Amino acid sequence: MKKLFIPASMALTAMLLLTGCLELHLGGGSRNDAQYQNPSVGQQLIDLQRARDAGAISAEEYQTQKAKLLGNK
Q1: Residue boundaries of the structural domains of the chain
Q2: Neighbouring C-beta atoms of residue 55, cutoff 10 Å
Q3: pLDDT for 12-45, tens place per residue?
Q4: Is residue 23 a contact partner of residue 44, using CB atoms and an 8 Å limit?
Q5: With contact defined as beta carbons under 8 Å apart, do 48 and 57 qualify?
Q6: 6: phi > 0 → left, psi -120 to 50 → alpha, else beta; which?
Q7: Sign of the CA dihedral with 66 first, then 69, 70, and 72 last
Q8: pTM (2 decimals)?
Protein backbone atom coordinates (compact mmCIF):
# COMPACT_ATOMS: atom_id res chain seq x y z
CA MET A 1 0.00 0.00 0.00
CA LYS A 2 2.82 2.42 0.87
CA LYS A 3 4.44 1.76 -2.51
CA LEU A 4 1.39 3.22 -4.27
CA PHE A 5 0.84 6.13 -1.90
CA ILE A 6 3.82 8.26 -2.94
CA PRO A 7 3.37 7.96 -6.74
CA ALA A 8 -0.38 8.47 -6.40
CA SER A 9 0.07 11.58 -4.26
CA MET A 10 2.68 12.96 -6.68
CA ALA A 11 0.35 12.35 -9.62
CA LEU A 12 -2.52 14.06 -7.80
CA THR A 13 -0.32 17.05 -6.96
CA ALA A 14 0.84 17.34 -10.57
CA MET A 15 -2.76 17.19 -11.82
CA LEU A 16 -3.82 19.94 -9.43
CA LEU A 17 -0.93 22.17 -10.48
CA LEU A 18 -1.60 21.61 -14.17
CA THR A 19 -5.31 22.25 -13.71
CA GLY A 20 -4.52 25.59 -12.10
CA CYS A 21 -2.14 26.51 -14.92
CA LEU A 22 -4.71 25.57 -17.55
CA GLU A 23 -7.37 27.56 -15.78
CA LEU A 24 -5.21 30.68 -15.83
CA HIS A 25 -4.09 30.09 -19.42
CA LEU A 26 -7.61 29.59 -20.75
CA GLY A 27 -8.89 32.76 -19.13
CA GLY A 28 -10.71 31.29 -16.17
CA GLY A 29 -8.61 33.19 -13.66
CA SER A 30 -9.31 36.77 -12.77
CA ARG A 31 -7.28 39.24 -14.82
CA ASN A 32 -7.20 42.86 -15.70
CA ASP A 33 -8.27 43.17 -19.36
CA ALA A 34 -6.51 46.52 -19.70
CA GLN A 35 -3.24 44.69 -19.09
CA TYR A 36 -3.73 42.60 -22.24
CA GLN A 37 -4.58 45.40 -24.68
CA ASN A 38 -2.20 46.32 -27.47
CA PRO A 39 0.22 49.05 -26.40
CA SER A 40 0.00 52.45 -28.05
CA VAL A 41 2.66 53.62 -30.52
CA GLY A 42 4.00 55.96 -27.84
CA GLN A 43 4.38 53.09 -25.36
CA GLN A 44 6.10 50.98 -28.01
CA LEU A 45 8.54 53.82 -28.69
CA ILE A 46 9.28 54.13 -24.97
CA ASP A 47 9.86 50.38 -24.75
CA LEU A 48 12.17 50.51 -27.78
CA GLN A 49 14.17 53.34 -26.21
CA ARG A 50 14.50 51.39 -22.98
CA ALA A 51 15.66 48.29 -24.87
CA ARG A 52 18.29 50.36 -26.68
CA ASP A 53 19.42 52.05 -23.47
CA ALA A 54 19.73 48.66 -21.77
CA GLY A 55 21.79 47.31 -24.66
CA ALA A 56 19.19 44.72 -25.64
CA ILE A 57 19.06 46.09 -29.20
CA SER A 58 21.56 48.01 -31.29
CA ALA A 59 21.15 51.64 -32.35
CA GLU A 60 20.62 50.46 -35.93
CA GLU A 61 17.89 48.03 -34.88
CA TYR A 62 16.32 50.80 -32.79
CA GLN A 63 16.16 53.12 -35.83
CA THR A 64 14.70 50.36 -38.01
CA GLN A 65 11.97 49.46 -35.51
CA LYS A 66 11.21 53.11 -34.80
CA ALA A 67 10.75 53.78 -38.51
CA LYS A 68 8.36 50.81 -38.77
CA LEU A 69 6.32 52.08 -35.83
CA LEU A 70 6.10 55.57 -37.30
CA GLY A 71 5.18 54.27 -40.73
CA ASN A 72 8.42 55.24 -42.49
CA LYS A 73 9.13 51.74 -43.70
Answers
A1: 2-27+39-70
A2: 7
A3: 677 766 666 555 556 555 555 556 678 899 999 9
A4: no
A5: yes
A6: alpha
A7: positive
A8: 0.49
